[in-house]
Amino acid sequence: MNLMRFNKAKCKILHLGQGNPCYQSTLGDEGIESSPAKKDLGVLVDDKQDMSHQCVLAAQKANQILGCITRSVASRSREGILPLCSVLVRPHLEYCVQLWSPQHKQGMELLEQVRRRATKMIQELEHLSCEERLRELGLFSLEKRRLRGDLRAALQYLKGPTGRMGKIFAAGPVAIGQGVMVLTERGRFRLDTRKKFFAMRVVKHRHRLPREVVDAPSLETFKARLDGALSNLVWLKLSLLTAGGLG
C-alpha cells in the first residue's frame, strides 16, 4: 500500500507447521533463502515456535549484565542492588514476553535462576531460600510477573478499539456486569504449542479473577486490585491458578 521496496538481503522465509512442503519463494525474479530461525525486534522466533532459544538468549544477556554488576559494585545493600537489577537485568527477562513467554519448565527455570542469583547478591539475605528472599523484598517471581503482564495486556485490548480486540480475542455471546466481556478461545488447536500462545493462555486466567478485579473501572485500578489478588499467591505454583486458585 505504501509502495515500499523490499530489501531482499533482509528477507528470509520461515517455514512453519508440521508437514510444511517448504516451497521455494521468490521476490520478483530472485529467490529468497529459507531460515530455521529469525530475530525480529530482538525476539528470536524459530520454526518450532516453542521459544526455547529466546529463553536461552534472554537468560544469557541478563546473566552477563548481572556479572558486570557483581564485579563493579562493592555495595551489597538492597538499596543498591535492587534498582540496578530492576533497570538493567529484568528488562532482558521481560522484554516482549507476552510473545515469547516460556512454554516449558526448562525455560521457566532458566529465567528464575537469574532472579535467584540476583536476590542472593543482597547482603543478609544469602542464607534465605528464594521464596523467603522474595517475600522479604516484596517481589513477585518472574512467573507471577508474566501472569500479571498477560492480564494487564488483555485488559488493554479489551478497553481499546473493538477492531483491535477482535484480532486477538473472540468475544462470548453475553457481557457480564458493566462492560465486562466474556472471552472465548479462538478455535481449537491440536498442538500444545499453539495452546500456550498469549490469546489462548490468558483467557482462563482472566475468567478466574475475583469479580472486583474484573470490574475495575480503569487500568490503574485494575493494576492495584490485581496486585492485591496476586500478592496472596506469590508463593504458589502456576498449577494452582490453572486449577482455579484465583476463583
What attributes characterize this protein structure?
247 residues, mainly alpha, two-stranded antiparallel sheet, 12 helices
Radius of gyration (Å) = 21 Å
As for the number of domains, it is 3
Strand order in the largest sheet: 1-2
Q: Into which percentage range does the β-strand content fall? A: 5-15%
Percentage of residues assigned to helices: 40-55%
The overall pLDDT average reads: 79
Number of strands: 6
What's the tally of helices? Answer: 12
What composes the largest sheet? 2 strands, antiparallel
What is the terminal-to-terminal distance?
Answer: 47 Å
Helix-strand string: EEEEHHHHHHHEEHHHHH
Short description:
The protein is mainly α. It has 12 helices and 6 strands. It has helices at 52-72, 78-94, 97-100, 105-120, 130-137, 142-159, 162-166, 192-195, 198-207, 211-214, 219-231, 238-242, and strands at 25-27, 30-32, 37-40, 43-46, 170-176, 180-184.
